[in-house]
Design brief:
The protein has helices at 58-61, 74-77; strands at 10-17, 26-28, 33-35, 45-50, 65-69, 81-90, 93-102, 105-112. The chain has a single domain (10-112), classed as 2,3-Dihydroxybiphenyl 1,2-Dioxygenase, domain 1 (Roll). By secondary structure, the protein is mainly β. It contains 2 helices and 8 strands; from the N terminus they run E-E-E-E-H-E-H-E-E-E.
Length: 121
């Protein structure tokens, strides 16, 4: 039986892998990848391009994902298959993110830091 009051989540973006450089990419040294800002795309698409030596799993590098903004990560991770445990994004960090595997799809949960925005905002 599903929870009658699931924790609130708000759609944030769809992440799509690419091998082609994209306009206005930001380099994420932690994951060794370049990302675009989904807030600047009309359909909220984030493009991700990974360096050959990125430590991010090949499966994730080759798959799309959906991302949600949440107030707290823990309720969204409980009882789910965790692909990537919580990690801070950006330098300085703008959010904490965790990735689950749900119904065959990668799902990213983002908890933004107060007053902070995407990598390049």
């Amino acid at each position: 039986m599903s929870d009658p009051h699931p924790p609130r989540k708000t759609f944030h973006h769809i992440g799509l892998p690419t091998t082609e450089p994209q306009p206005n990419e930001t380099y994420d040294a932690g994951d060794r990848c370049w990302v675009t800002n989904p807030n600047r795309h009309p359909q909220h698409v984030e493009y991700l391009r990974f360096a050959p030596d990125s430590s991010v799993s090949r499966e994730f590098q080759e798959s799309p994902h959906v991302a949600f903004e949440v107030a707290e990560l823990e309720p969204h991770l409980a009882g789910k298959e965790i692909h990537s445990p919580p990690v801070e994004l950006g330098d300085p960090p703008f959010a904490t993110a965790a990735i689950t595997r749900e119904h065959g799809l990668f799902v990213e949960y983002l908890k933004f830091k107060p007053g902070r925005a995407w990598f390049d905002q």
